[in-house]
Amino acid sequence: MRTRTRDPQTLGNDGTLARMARILAARNIDPAAVAALADEPEPFSPLDALLAGMPQRYRSAVADHPQVLTWVRDVAQEAVAPSLGARRQVTTGPSLLMAGVVGAGKTHQAYGAVRQLVQSGVGVRWRATTAADLYADLRPRAGVDSERELAAVSRCPLLIIDDLGAAKASEWVEEVTYRLINRRYNHMLPTLITTNLAIKDLRAYLGDRVTSRLAQMTTRVEFEPVDRRRHRTAA
What we know:
Radius of gyration: 25 Å
Shape: globular
Distance between the termini: 89 Å
Helix content: 40-55%
Number of strands: 5
Strand order of the largest sheet: 2-3-4-1-5
Number of helices: 11
Strand content: 5-15%
Largest sheet: 5 strands, parallel
Structural class: alpha/beta
């Protein structure tokens, strides 16, 4: 029995190149653009990918507060690799509660902390929201599965909750906050929380159940009573 052998085909043999050109033209695709894409290197580094998901204002944020940097170090130390040779990922870790006046730099430090984690070589699946936006997303309404959304936020490996205490207090707000914080407390998921309220005032706003868990799961940082936004404007 004879075995038929064929010469290796190269692009251009038997009109292959011409046929490909016709297919691309029929789909309004520029062949030069396809060739350029094939030669491009990987477009995003982990830091590039992180910055693309950050608000423009905080893409250059740098964490420099000593307690925030300690938090970054502690979370990085607890990161684990899902498999041999894979990048370490944030899975569990401590949380941080940053309290201070409006403009004290709390949000800047929170985004800077996430940036520092990625720059240290740790992978982070994260999410950031203001408390007001969070409650708006979770409020029951037609066509939205608010329970599913709450579960997704609760399970996020790293969560920033900005301006806790800025939304109007209600029994519903207290209950939703408790359910979110309790789930993250139970699963030891790192959470960065900022608030304009003094720490002693959080209990009146959030209730005993929430503040008790926050006291156990977070390191609390009191920022100096200086509005850095106004200070930078005046300078």
